[in-house]
Amino acid sequence: MSTQPLVDVRHLKQYFPIRTGFFETTPLKAVDDISFYVNEGETLGLVGESGCGKTTAGRTILHLYKPTAGEIYYDGNLITEKNIKNYRKEMQIVFQDPYSSLDPRMTVADIIGEPLDIHHLYSNKAERTDKVRHLMDLVGLNSEQANRYAHEFSGGQRQRIGIARALAVDPNFIVCDEPVSALDVSIQAQIINTFEDLQKKLNIAYLFIAHDLLVVRHMSNRIAVMYLGRIVETADASFPQTYPFGG
Fold this sequence. Notes:
Layout: E1 7-19, E2 25-38, E3 43-47, H1 54-61, E4 69-74, E5 77-78, E6 91-94, H2 108-118, H3 125-138, H4 155-167, E7 173-177, H5 185-202, E8 205-210, H6 213-219, E9 222-227, E10 230-236
Parallel strand pairs: 3-8, 3-9, 6-7, 7-8
Antiparallel strand pairs: 1-2, 1-4, 4-5, 9-10
């Protein structure tokens, strides 16, 4: 593992203006001066109560929201608005809701294949089809169902589609934005095991955002606790010997 962090976040702030009067606004400090790092192949759990700024932090790191202040480094290089496109392949996200994050008008093949289209990662249609089927197999989906639509799949299967979409560009870092909170407990275990298997196979680093302490403890190498927009504590995770999500 490299001694240099893969992702290094320094004094990140994300403020949203809230109108308090006819001509007056006040900043909502969703993320208020946080710093942390994620090493190659590591999982950093980001935990906190609803509304503390976890999701906003994850999206700001990926520049889905323009940062108010602070610096984000990827592999030692500063990410800016001008060069963020160069890092889209390196950093991806798996969204919380597997129902609203997938386009209902697109087939699974098109959902997973869209990143391949955007980044021109195939030379012909046959290669694109092979890559889509490989990604579906990788996340535990039946590749014969590639031409079906998202609404024809269960919640757990939809989240696997979202994971396959994130993996399409071969990223080194994935923001997992509460990826199991919308799923049944029995399905949560399967998805968590999928994340772990993929990390072992592909050496992916995760920022794993959740409010469930047990899930975060199981998934993470280190845990950062967030409260009211700030990180108030960071510590190594302690793995128990036996745990129901293990396998």
